[in-house]
User: Fold this.
Amino acid sequence: MRLHPVFLLVLLAGLALSSSGCLLVAVGAGAAGTVAYMAGDMESEESYSLDQVYTAAKKATDDLKLHMITGEGGKDALSATIVARDAADKRITIKLTSTTQNTTKISIRIGTFGSETKSRLIYSKIMENLRATAQAPAQPAPAAPAAQPAQTPPEPAAAQPAQTAPTPPATQEPAQTPLPPPATQEPAPTPPAPK
Assistant:
């Protein structure tokens, strides 16, 4: 009778030790940015919106030259699925689920039994694209102030021609008007000569 509980305890300890890596991976699967590979699926939860992850995943399939199957995927406000095939004709399914407004769960499966190596490659390409888009909004911000100075120079440019155009004619006209009166005053002193 005592052998039965001891045998059960040893069996459970052996199972725990043999699958400890999977248990550790599964424990961290709930935190954002943690990647877990279990039963052929690579899963992660990332702090990006569904639209951002969907765009990055589509770009990842293009970057890796995977053939997207258009009729099998789709996207709505809560989830998206991208289905593609690699050069070995393995089916690749990328499932995206919006868990919050700015958090998305990513699930990648390669073929029937999965491939951790290929899943990690696709995942890293998706993350690379997400980081690139996160840096991209910082660059367009300086472009917006560049548009404002483009609006302000036309106003001074319009004011400058208005100021310069009246100024030269005003200086030329008074210079021409004083010259003729002194010319008419010089002939006036000629009449005293007949004395």
Q: What stands out?
A: Residues 19-30, 158-167, 169-179, 182-186 have pLDDT under 50 and may be disordered. Helices lie at 3-18, 20-27, 50-63, 116-135, 140-151, 154-164, 167-176, 180-185. The longest helix spans residues 116-135. The chain is about 50% helix and 20% strand.
